[in-house]
Amino acid sequence: MPSLTPSARGRVEPFHVMELLKAANERQRRVGDVLTMCAGQPSTPAPAPVRRAAVAAIASGAPHGYTDAMGVAALREAVAAHYGRTTGHALDPRRVAVTTGSSAAFTAVFLAAFDPADTVLMTRPGYPAYRNSLGALGCRAVELDCGPDVSFRATLDAVRAWTADQRRVPAGLILASPANPTGTVVDASELAALARWCEQEGVLLISDEIYHGITFGAVESSALATSDAAVVIGSFSKYYSMTGWRVGWAVLPEPLVRPVELLLGNLNICAPAIAQVAAVEAFGAEARAELDGHVARYAVNRDIVLSRLPELGVTRWAPCDGAFYAYADIGHLTDDSLRWCVDVLDATGVAVTPGVDFAPHHAEADASLDGSRWFRFSFAGATADCEEAMTRLAEYASR
Ligand SMILES: Cc1ncc(COP(=O)(O)O)c(C=O)c1O
């Protein structure tokens, strides 16, 4: 019998943090001393009104079968009202697609907007799933090297320079603000300038705003406030503390509404019904008060982690103006961040994420920025755990 040959496009890069998470879980069962600072998720449950709504939805005995592919009307309206409140921009709920986490929004938007071999620009360091899912769809993800000189942001100058060098415009540009892993925040005027350039050049701007709500002094802004031609991605996973509920959304430019609806219906049928119904409550005042309490804790954790990084000999880290990650240069300790993270877990029980997940091959431009010399510390957990993890890391680094 001929053996099965997996497809070339299915051969995506591993997400190394998953291996660490597996090793961390195994050590937790064996030793029980693990501090997990590698997961990109809050350690808290969904806000109380969301949990109450989910319990009531189940108790009602309603069938909770498939919903419309684009999501239940109440949630699409709630998302639109949320943008009305936060941007002052009236948004037609028809343009909101509710998806199975924002991850499903990315797949549907990539498929609806790009053809095989299309080029899409993104930042390096950046969130690896953009690159890997575009690659699996046959598109070309091109990473712009964004270092400390530009606060780890994709600037209009860099995008223009790429375009001039290549003598063509890309099909798309993905911007995350606040960004994972760097926490960098693109300010309103810069976002507006990039959005204007994209509109003029016919480039689809995809603005990943899933960390909105988690900033530390920086002012976040939505691409929706400046452009009706951009795709804006949101999620209940981060600020709303609902990662496993798997609900996110995309705000779509008019021409993508119908194609995305058709794709979602075929790819996912719909996002989880009970999670959708309950998520409506996440926008209410009671939920927001609870969630803002988490953000206040992240701010305390951030200050602790950043102020103690020098105990590891670290002198350089990314802006950390939003999201809940410290992304720091450990080039004085290793040039193999994956090995270092595995060794740290072995020696201390602290699980952190290697930079190779976010900035592979950065060495082509500047070896000191290569992900093999950086690590990411997620401070979304308890303050005491952040303190203890930093103590163990400092002790390990001084060995
Ligand atoms: C920048 C960024 N975008 C998108 C996602 C996907 O999140 P979800 O599918 O849970 O909405 C993540 C998850 O960590 C992320 O960090």
What is the secondary structure topology, with strand pairs?
Layout: H1 16-30, E1 35-36, H2 48-59, H3 73-87, E2 96-99, H4 101-113, E3 119-124, H5 128-136, E4 140-145, H6 156-166, E5 172-176, H7 188-201, E6 204-208, E7 231-235, E8 248-251, H8 254-267, H9 273-279, H10 285-308, E9 325-329, H11 337-348, E10 350-351, E11 353-354, E12 374-378, H12 383-397
Parallel strand pairs: 1-10, 3-4, 3-5, 5-6, 6-7
Antiparallel strand pairs: 2-8, 7-8, 9-12, 11-12
The protein binds pyridoxal-5'-phosphate.
Pyridoxal-5'-phosphate binds at residues 40, 101-103, 127, 176, 180, 208, 210, 235, 237, 243, 248.
Describe this entry's structure for a reader.
- The protein has 399 residues and is α/β, with parallel strands linked by helices.
- It folds into 2 domains: 16-45 and 287-397, Aspartate Aminotransferase, domain 2 (3-Layer(aba) Sandwich), CATH 3.40.640; 48-284, Aspartate Aminotransferase, domain 2 (3-Layer(aba) Sandwich), CATH 3.40.640.10.
- Helices cover 40% and strands 13% of the residues.
- It is built from 12 helices and 12 strands.
- The chain has helices at 16-30, 48-59, 73-87, 101-113, 128-136, 156-166, 188-201, 254-267, 273-279, 285-308, 337-348, 383-397, and strands spanning 35-36, 96-99, 119-124, 140-145, 172-176, 204-208, 231-235, 248-251, 325-329, 350-351, 353-354, 374-378.
- A 7-stranded mixed β-sheet has the order 2-8-7-6-5-3-4, sandwiched between helices. A 3-stranded antiparallel β-sheet has the order 9-12-11.
- Helix 5 (128-136) links the parallel strand 3 and strand 4.
- Helix 4 packs across helix 5 and helix 10 runs parallel beside helix 12.
- The radius of gyration is 21 Å and the shape is globular.
- The model has no long low-confidence stretch (mean pLDDT 95).
- Bound molecules: pyridoxal-5'-phosphate.
- Pyridoxal-5'-phosphate binds next to helix 4.
